[in-house]
Amino acid sequence: MSVATSPATREALARQDQEIRMLEDLLRQSIERLAGREVLARFDRVRDASVALRSKGSPEDARFLREFLESLDILALRELIRAFTIYFDLNNLAEQHARIRAIRRRIRSQHPSPMAESFSEAVVRLREKKFPASELAKRLGKLHISPVFTAHPSEARRLTILEKLAAISNEIDRLDYHELLPEENTASMEAIRQHIEILWLTESVRAERPKVIDEVRQGLEVVEGSLFDVVPKLYRLMENALREIYPEHDWKLPAILRFGSWIGGDRDGHPDVIATVTAETVALHQATIIKHYRAQVLELGKHLSHSGKRISLGQRFIDDLRQEAGLLGLPDNRLQREPLRQKCRHVARKLELTLARLESPRPGWTDAPRQAPTTVYTDPNRLKADLEAIRGELATNQATAAAAMLDQLIRKVDVFGLHLLTLDIRQHADRHRSAIAEILAHAGIERDYEKLGPEEKLTLLADQLTLPRPVIPAHLVFSAPTNEVIETFRTVSAILEHQCPEAIENCIISGTGDAAHLLEVLLLAREARLFRPSEGISRINIIPLFETLEALRQGREILQRLMDVPSWREHVVLRGDLQEVMIGYSDSNKESGFVQSAWALHEIQRDLAEFGRENGISIRIFHGRGGSVGRGGGPANHAILAQPPGAVNGSLRITEQGEVIADRYGHKAIAMRHLDQVANAVLRASLGLDHGKVEHAWEALMDRLASAARNHYRDLVYSNPDFLSYFTQATPISEISQLRLGSRPAKRGTTTSIEQLRAIPWVFSWMQSRHTLPGWFGLGTALAGAIAESPENLPMLKRMYSAWPFFHALIDNAQMILAKADMNIARLYADLVTDAGISGRIFGAIESEYQRAVAGLCSITGQSALLDNMPILRDSIGRRNPYVDPLSLIQLVLLRRIREGGADKPALLEAVLESINGIASGLKNTG
Fold first, then answer.
1. Residue 152 among the catalytic residues
2. How far apart, in whole angstroms, are the C-alpha atoms of residue 439 and residue 450?
3. Which of 152, 164, 306, 412 is catalytic?
4. Which runs of E-coded beta strand occur in 628-739?
5. Rounded mean pLDDT of the chain?
6. DSSP E strands: which ranges in 266-387?
7. I need a surface site. Which of 152, 244, 686, 867 has the fewest CB within 10 A?
8. Is the pTM of this model over 0.85?
9. Catalytic residue, candidates 590, 623, 674, 712
């Protein structure tokens, strides 16, 4: 069953195609101008042959294309890679703008009704269900949505490339939304052409791995370029919707959005993220937001030229203004003439002094709190109070000029505070365990801590937490790794005590496998004065990260054992009876396969919701999702709605990784829509607007599907002795490891094994070779087995797809990634394997499973082919394939030459890395 497109959609697609042709024409002009007609003719020839191959599929066309590419030298191949890569970057921009136009078209056509999947729509549904305004206000007061940016190396493009594409995007905006004069239109087209020329002349591959601080700055580019504008506008839209739909209530929407970051705090497997880097990261965050506030306040002052003779000011405002002028050493000659502008000058000066204090030497973790002068901001509430004083005077005088600008600035202070982004600290449990072992041995408490069983460790740590004496000396005498662990906690303590209490809030423990892993961190926190129960202080959330199937299944039991430890229970109470738990999508997928991972993650959320209710605490789930389906990716709002009842409960944190950051936040209109959809989904999920009844028979069938899929996946990936050889030869994993995507190493250890490989290069490799295996393998066997098991199962699977959001999202995510696979291209990668027997057996197993998965999905969804029910995505992939195929074929030529020991291996490797960028752009997926 195929879904027909509407006339409006067809018109929009025609406009998109026209825009793509326009951009391609400009690219072709640039190629001819900068590289010559021969290069352009070669690009046209390869493109036309690939299009013909896709439309006719004749063996002659395939053979010609392969032989032609094999005949080219490395320079010619690299020029083709560059041409097709830039084409995809431009194509992605055209699709992005088509999406923006579609959003605007739907808003206009549906007005005054709210747009589907918006915050406003969720509020309308609540009103229709007669949900009380007072109860909604109470629920909104507890709503907590926190996207967390990470530096996971799945963004293949350099920052300079992203900047050039952003400049082209701005020109497309001008062409779309401005009534340009002919010469202005020509100027915009010329600007686009010039930016394309610069792209052609710019290296696409990083010359070296970025430093951690470089990644911090790149993350801040997104905040400054998008979120500073988007956040206050989104709040205004949400607040207006509440007032319009519930006019009887006096609404003041609380700060439901908070933003976090791992960049500069995630030290798991990353030797370069050390305590000093974390301190530098926090300082950069603070300097960025303080400078932004200062610029905004000065801009506000330009608009507040109200004469003191024409407005009536409160006496307290006047007195404060005079007092501040004296303290700040500023002349008060504007107090009468332009008092509101003078107040803005005062605020700007306080921000300057706050920044200067930030740049001065910071006290250590044991130092007593220093008294800050009243002329600096140590608390965002003091800054907000100054801004609200201005707002109050404007309201008293019924002066609306600049009120909107002021309100937006106040909203930013609500959301970003003086910290901008809350930095998370993440470290692996093994590092904490070895540090604690060394510390306890040095203190003479336990010389063989690592040999103790889980219960013995738990008892020992629980006892130590009740004793007042410290176990770590002030002067560190341990090994370098242990000293660094301790320095991290001391640095966090100093930042929170003396610099910014909101700068760091969470400590995440990778590889959590038992309760002792969390008590180890609590003991380290106590030693750094972060946990001071006698003073009623516990400064950080300690968060287990359950990643493996075993950990996901034992998560509830681990938390229950912790709750039986008095010190842990006291810590949770001091954190507001909140226990946050992070669940990892990537490693559980790599370990157990797509289906089992998805089901185990669903089950632990259901279990944790029940655990929270039983223990009288709030559970916040932090979703460690990647961009690709193989790492938990997919539409964020659909994923939220697919969670079990009670799992969201008004609070959600979710990682935004790699290429997803640019895709979701690179353009303000897309960022606005994304955050609006997330707010819609969190509100709906929290209030149970979409929770239907899930039948026990569905869950039982899902258990069997997950088990069968896992067994089939592990039989291939972990039990087949030839699989590792196939993987290392039939994918560009070796080359991806040299791609310098991010500052973090590709492997956790030095051994070459599937277990040691990080999830991102694992998924990235399968995407590049067009297998896309992590996003679907095992599903076909599971569905085929279930359908064959009983004639009742296929109708049940269809009901599950139509009525169970979890299963619907599972199936749709699988079909999206299956549609990006191409077994004909994957077969050519399989031919890279030197042992033809291994190649034939492994690829045969993958291809058979692919066919079973496609057949099973189509049976359940009622489609004749994949994505018939998603025609826009289907057409996008169909339009891209003829341009991705040449990049894949070129990559194959290059890989074969490298592995045959071809001359000039460094140049061949650089060309492969360029082709990896191009394919990633074409598929719109990395890892």
1. yes
2. 12
3. 152
4. 651-657
5. 92
6. none
7. 244
8. yes
9. 590
